[in-house]
Structure formats: C-alpha cells, structure tokens
C-alpha cells in the first residue's frame, strides 16, 4: 500500500488554502493512499497496446448543426420591456447603488 503521510496531506491542504482538522487529515491520508494504489493496479494492466480513454464507450455529438436563423430586431426585443432607452434594456439599481 502506498503511504501518503499526514504531513503530505497537511502540506497540500496548506498550499490549497484548505483548512482541515487533524481527523480529516488522518482520514484523507488513508483515502489518498487507497486511490494511489488503485491507480497503480490499473497502470500494471494498461500496457502500451491499450489506448488511453476518458470513457468506456465512444461518445458521439448529438447536437444539431448550428445554423443561423431569423432573430429579433432590437425594436422587437425591446417591445416587451418595461423600460428601455431605445437601444438597451433599463433596469433599476440594485444593492442601493445609484446610477
């Protein structure tokens, strides 16, 4: 079993600016060691003749082609707006900010 020390986990947590309790560090040390061991097992059986993949089955894009269509004019888009200045939507200020 690969040994991931608590010092290594604490150091990585410090670098990532993650606050961990001593209990969390102990737990993560064991979990990360298990993950490293699992990766090592996969690496043993994945030889040079096995191509790297991100998915077990091939992915196919199911989206339709992006074809430009008819769009609204600025006047049409603004026609339903409660407030506009003829070019843009007008919205009220938020969080007490004055414009």
Largest sheet: none
Work out the helix count.
3
**Overall 3D shape:** flat
Uncertain segments are none
Average predicted confidence as pLDDT: 87
CATH fold field value of the domain at 6-45? Histone, subunit A
Q: What string, H for helix and E for strand, traces the elements in order?
A: HHH
Oligomer: single chain
Helix content: 25-40%
CATH architecture of the domain at 6-45: Orthogonal Bundle
Proportion in β-strands: under 5%
N- to C-terminal distance: 62 Å
The radius of gyration is 28 Å
- What CATH first level of the domain at 6-45 would be assigned? Mainly Alpha
Classify the secondary structure makeup into a structural class.
mainly alpha
Query: Count the strands?
Result: 0
Describe the structure.
It contains three helices and no strands. With 99 residues, the chain is mostly helical. The model has no long low-confidence stretch (mean pLDDT 87). α1 (6-15) crosses α2. It has a domain at 6-45: Orthogonal Bundle (Histone, subunit A). The protein has helices at 6-15, 22-45, 74-78. The radius of gyration is 28 Å and the shape is flat.
Topology:
Layout: H1 6-15, H2 22-45, H3 74-78
Helix pairs in contact: 1-2
Provide a compact summary of the structure:
Helix content is 39%, strand content 0%. It is mainly α. The longest helix is centred in the middle third of the chain and has 24 residues, at 22-45.
């Amino acid at each position: 079993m690969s040994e991931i020390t608590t010092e290594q986990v604490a150091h990585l947590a410090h670098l990532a600016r993650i606050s961990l309790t001593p209990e969390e560090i102990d737990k993560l040390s064991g979990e990360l060691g298990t993950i490293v061991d699992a990766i090592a097992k996969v690496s043993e059986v994945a030889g040079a003749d096995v191509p790297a993949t991100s998915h077990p089955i091939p992915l196919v894009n199911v989206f339709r082609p992006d074809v430009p269509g008819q769009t609204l004019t600025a006047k049409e888009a603004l026609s339903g707006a409660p407030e506009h200045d003829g070019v843009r939507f007008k919205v009220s200020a938020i969080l007490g900010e004055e414009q």
